[in-house]
Specification:
The protein is of the alpha+beta class. Helix content is 42%, strand content 20%. Helix 3 packs across helix 4.
Length: 139
């Protein structure tokens, strides 16, 4: 997926929406999540854990979120997902490798300031980017 395709999406009304999170950039199937958990690497941040795995097919990153019931009620879980989606949306243009990413929040995410969350997401994406470049250079 080229960088331009990630900059905007088309809404059902035909209008172009800037900064969207298109379906092709989301991790949706259970089997994909399981593959990332079992075969992927991990990066631990203060407020979330990131699992990532290189994809053999070319394209941009695909990102998924898992927020279990142990983290709170539906309102809290949905707030976590919204905050994570926005942090990813703000930083994912930096990630230009073919990788599947699963993000698991921690309970502390609800109390964290958004600038701190953005910084941690940027750092996590930098780790993924460096790892992928290292893998590509060794190939």
């Amino acid at each position: 997926m080229c960088a331009d395709a990630r900059k905007s999406t088309v809404e059902p009304s035909g209008q172009l929406k800037r900064g969207g999170f298109p379906r092709g950039a989301r991790l949706l199937r259970h089997s994909d999540f399981e593959r990332v958990y079992k075969q992927g690497k991990r990066h631990f941040a203060t407020h979330f854990t990131v699992f990532y795995l290189q994809r053999p097919t070319p394209g941009g990153p695909r990102i998924g979120f898992t927020v279990g019931r142990a983290l709170g009620g539906a309102v809290d879980r949905n707030r976590m997902k919204r905050r994570l989606r926005e942090a990813v949306r703000s930083n994912w243009m930096e990630l230009d490798v073919s990788v599947d990413v699963v993000i698991n929040p921690k309970k502390s995410l609800l109390k964290a300031g958004f600038p701190e969350l953005l910084e941690q997401m940027k750092r996590a994406f930098d780790v993924i980017q460096k790892f992928q470049k290292k893998v590509e250079s060794n190939s």
